[in-house]
Amino acid sequence: MTKNMRYLRNCFIYNCLFVFTFWDNIGLAKKNELFASVPNNFPEDGLDKKNMSFPHSYANNQHYKADYGWVMIENTTESLSLSEIADDNVRKLITLLSKFRKGSRLRNLTLTNMSVDWKDIIKVLQVVWHSSIEYFNINNLTQLGNVVSTRFDYSKTSMKAFAVNKVLITDLYFSQDDVYNIFANMNIAALTIAESELIHMLCPSSDSPLRYINFSKNDLTDLLFQNCDKLIQLETFILHRNKFESLPKVSFMTSRMKSLRYLDMSSNLLRNSRAEGRCQWADSLAELDLSSNQLTEAVFECLPANINKVDLQNNQIASVPKGITELHSLQELNLASNRLADLPGCRAFTGLEILNIERNLILTPSADFFETCPSVKELQAGQNPFKCSCELQDFLRLERQSGGKLSGWPEAYVCKYPEDLSGTQLKDFHLTELACNTTLLLVTALLLTLVLVAVVAFLCIYLDVPWYVRMLWQWTQTKRRAWHDCPEERETALQFHAFISYSERDSLWVKNELIPNLEKGEGCIQLCQHERNFIPGKSIVENIINCIEKSYKSIFVLSPNFVQSEWCHYELYFAHHKLFSENSNSLILILLEPIPPYVIPARYHKLKALMAKRTYLEWPKERSKHALFWANLRAAISINLSVADEQNRTEV
């Protein structure tokens, strides 16, 4: 099969040698490798993409070295790509190219790895200039020998675009104008000189038809095209990765380019200083790329008034100043990879539709952005070091209300701070309204405090807490005075069998019934009564406390009159305090008259508790039961005071 293919190929070559001399020993490659530098304004091949079908033996992707010495990379009826052009085969190349006069179908020519003298470069360029070729591309051009002044004929050309990439000039001593003049006065639509260490370019000698210029990756400076008014048709100007430093000088360079629409000044050394003066841009400039420079917020004072799109990413912008000139036509602004700490407002950009502020220093974006920027349709704010706190809640609410205007949501919006939330997507971060609303939190805390105070006040009033506090204070003061004034009486001896507490309204029963029956007769009992045993000069409270402490028991005569007496309440309180402090069984309750529960005040809760838990003696109405009552009462009180006192001392 291989032999048959070789035979067919040789037959085809011999049969077609007379008609297609220049097609000798060719190979096909990918068509889209041609003219990578041709601008978007122009099609890749200048015509429709119909190619002639060649014999199968030539339809392969392998490079093939012809007898002329160069390598044929691609050959169709409209495109030809050759490589390895040198001094020994350049004349054959010129002879070959001279056959492509106007009317030929060849439109695209690419020469790669070309190392020839300057005069041969000019000859090749001159032959191509007067051929049918419209798009000419040279890659890796090395100039050998000396550069000399050469006259070039620009007339009668089909050329539309010329691109040369990676030029190396070995001649160290030559007039640069001899090189620049050749390119500056080309009467074509598109010119590309890239990666060639180009340091300058002359202004065309007459009005130039150039609409596209690409001088990227060179060493051009602010001196380029100053005071040049010949590029009146230039629409696209690419100066990516050069050595421009002054933004005002760049603006002045464009001021006479009356058709300029797009300017790429990315990856230069641009700075903007107010001392350099005002900027003067072309009125027609619509799109400006100033990315990857050294610009600060002062750049906003040097932007074209009618600009539609500005790329300022990867600079040193910390904020958008207030009071700058309004840019009503600005629709797209790229501020990614700067130093912004918040979302910029749109007071100067009323027509802004797309804003990119990714990769800045924004912790908590402002929530009023869409209110100040109503025309914005897309906001790209991802990849910022967001601080997930209460301040971010308004921005999250803004996202829910934006209707999908946040580009990259939610993947590009991730918490950076605090560390325990690092990596959490903002959509998964939630805080309660109470935790974030300071006013609501204060109001809630105030209401809870008021409710708590009201509850405590109610309980204090209901349980008569102030009264108990006052009684405790008086009891403490009495004890303190007794401790300091009478040290010898600190260990008080029991002097009475019982202290009687009763209401003055029940005094007749106490004097006529209780005292006579307990103090008279066999085994008389010594009772402590306030009328006869209180010491003059001491306070009532102090007398009550002393009498209770000097008595083995405390008898309380209970009746509706008792619960209405304030002093009876005092006596009950101090007796109850002794009950718990000394862990003694010293209370005796006598129910003289039934007491309805509703009659007992709220502060008598201790009395209610005592009546519910302790046994009390009820004064019988029948006279026949009086003897049993007195017997039970005597039994509860009767005790030898000296023995009881000794027992108390032993317990202490």
Automatic annotation (TrEMBL):
Q: Name one GO cellular component term.
A: plasma membrane
Q: Which residues form the TIR domain?
A: 494-637
Top-level taxon of the source organism: Eukaryota
Annotated localization: Membrane
Q: For this UniProt entry, which segments traverse the membrane?
A: 440-463
Q: Which InterPro entries match?
A: Cys-rich_flank_reg_C, Leu-rich_rpt, Leu-rich_rpt_typical-subtyp, LRR_dom_sf, TIR_dom, Toll_tir_struct_dom_sf
Keywords, A to Z? Glycoprotein, Immunity, Inflammatory response, Innate immunity, Leucine-rich repeat, Membrane, Receptor, Repeat, Signal, Transmembrane, Transmembrane helix
The primary location reported for this protein is membrane
The protein's name is Toll-like receptor 1-like protein b
